[in-house]
Amino acid sequence: MEKLHPWYVTGLVEGEGSFVVSFSLRRRLKVGVETRPSLSVSQTEGNLELLKRLHVFFRCGGIRYSRGDRTYKYEVRSVDDLIKRIIPHFERYPLQGEKAQDFQKFARICSMVHANLHLNHDRLREIIELAYTMNPAGKRRHRKEVLLRALGEGKG
């Protein structure tokens, strides 16, 4: 399997990838909201081999089939892998288009989550506000106001 060129990887993510920060309401958590950053790259079955090569390139994450849009997705959800493998790649081989701004915000959020700042109400509020400036056309499960309200109702 031929190794992907680093600049090709950057271009692939620029065109087909997403830096996402998703949130779930979790009453059992002290702050009431779970924070999950991830990188996702989608391809049709014809390009599944490309996702496998991307998996080998980054040496982390996994590939899954999404029935909703009938595509395969390479995903990295481990904050440790995002901090140690994904973010350094895009710092060395920067995105050139619109996604560059989202990446900067994503990297900042990952750093905050890695430092457990998402467990603090005020810092989590900052993370939510920042995340909702990313991917303006993206789909969200919860409106920002719902998350902020849940955060206000959290224990502690």
Strand content: 15-25%
Return the average pLDDT rounded to an integer: 92
Helicity level: 40-55%
Strand order of the largest sheet: 1-2-4-3
CATH class: Alpha Beta
Figure out the total of helices.
6
Rg, Å, rounded? 16 Å
Number of DSSP strands? 4
The structural domain count equals 1
Name given to the CATH architecture? Roll
What is the CATH topology classification name? Answer: Endonuclease I-creI
Largest sheet: 4 strands, antiparallel
- Poorly predicted ranges (pLDDT <50, ≥5 residues)? none
The name of the CATH superfamily reads Homing endonucleases
- What class do helices, strands and sheet pairing give? alpha+beta
Helix-strand sequence: HEEHEEHHHH
Termini separation: 52 Å
Shape: globular
Textual characterization of the structure:
The protein has 156 residues and is an alpha+beta fold. The chain has a single domain (6-153), classed as Endonuclease I-creI. 47% of the residues lie in helices and 20% in strands. It has six helices and four strands, in the order αββαββαααα. Strands 1-2-4-3 form a four-stranded antiparallel beta sheet. Strand 3 and strand 4 form a beta hairpin. The longest helix is centred in the C-terminal third of the chain and has 16 residues, at 99-114. The termini are far apart.
